[in-house]
Write a structure and sequence with these properties.
The protein has 318 residues and is α+β, with helices and mostly antiparallel strands. The protein has 11 helices and 12 strands. The structure holds zinc ion.
């Protein structure tokens, strides 16, 4: 029978040289190659039903990072005796059903697992998971990221075996899980994830709404002079200052004009110029902003550009 909960802990090796040529053409960045997997299964009541550990033979990294070696005690010689990742993964996945909730201490293990699945061209079987570190913080009133060791001390769990071993850390995490309200914790965690997604969306929206760059120009005798002024009419990338390859300025309404610009590195941007007449000197002045090319702004720009070309076709035809 598949586990109701599976506590997962991974140990991974890190590249000594992330710029090494053999790491460049992989399917994704390799932040860590899994070398040891620890798993503890629990039933719905939180009772431990099994413990599992796998030593994984590396595929990508040929050298053990000294930091990983000193932390875990694992050497290349040792992990080479392990089984291939695909096989360890198959056995791990077999413990789970789609309803099994994965529990980890912190978010890193799941990210590394997904990354390794992708690197090995294996199916991403990871369903819903819950970061117990987050649940612990919420239920114990802790702030920031509590280490496994500190959480164990606070909950009076004895460290009766060495840490930084995948199974031992999974075991300790399982003991912590038993002291927390898992049902409530999952609800809290889901709320937390929803909130983070909302915040992310709001941040993206804010970035799209607010201009990324602005410029002003004054003293134009004719309106058209504003577009000839390179300070106003020519846009540069807000990220790298590279001159944008841009369209001409199209009239949006009485006072506003829009153009699209492209940076070879940072993609498309929408520029907007607003022209007003300065009453004192009877001259035109302009303000220009550059915005992220949101779908709304792109659609607005395309509509204006198409209207203009339709007008031109009518003129030529008539
Ligand atoms: Zn750029």
């Amino acid at each position: 029978m598949a586990a109701d909960y599976l506590v997962l802990d991974l140990e991974w090796n890190q590249p000594v040289d992330p710029a090494a040529p053999q790491l460049q053409n992989l399917k994704t960045t390799l932040n860590g190659e899994i070398i040891q997997i620890g798993a503890v299964t629990l039933n719905a009541k939180g009772k431990i039903t099994g413990t599992y550990t796998w030593l994984v033979r590396p595929t990508f990294l040929r050298q053990m990072h000294y930091h990983v070696r000193s932390l875990t005690g694992l050497t290349m010689q040792k992990v080479k005796k392990g089984i291939l990742f695909a096989e360890a993964n198959r056995q791990l996945a077999a413990l789970c059903s789609p309803e099994t909730l994965l529990l980890t201490w912190g978010p890193d293990d799941i990210h590394i697992l997904r990354q390794n699945l992708l690197l090995h061209n294996l199916e991403n079987w990871v369903g819903e998971w819950c970061d117990l570190q987050r649940v612990y913080a919420q239920q114990m009133g802790a702030t920031g990221q509590t280490s496994l060791q500190s959480a164990m001390e606070a909950l009076h769990i004895q460290a009766d075996r060495p840490a930084h071993d995948a199974l031992n850390d999974a075991w300790f995490t399982a003991l912590i899980a038993q002291k927390l309200d898992l049902k409530l914790g999952l609800e809290q965690y889901r709320d937390y994830v929803r909130l983070q997604e909302k915040k992310k969306l709001a941040r993206a929206k804010r970035r799209q709404k607010h201009p990324l760059a602005g410029k002003t120009g004054t003293g134009y005798a004719h309106r058209g002079d504003a577009f000839q002024d390179p300070q106003l009419g020519r846009m540069r990338c807000p990220s790298c200052k590279h001159p944008l390859k841009q369209t001409s300025w199209f009239k949006l309404d009485k006072h506003r004009f829009v153009a699209m610009g492209v940076c070879p590195q940072h993609g498309r941007f929408i520029g907007q110029i607003r022209l007003t007449r300065s009453p004192q000197e009877e001259k035109w002045q302009g303000k220009r902003w550059i915005y992220a090319a949101s779908p709304e702004r792109l659609a607005q720009f395309e509509a204006v550009r198409q209207k203009k070309s339709a007008r031109q076709r009518v003129k030529k035809g008539g």
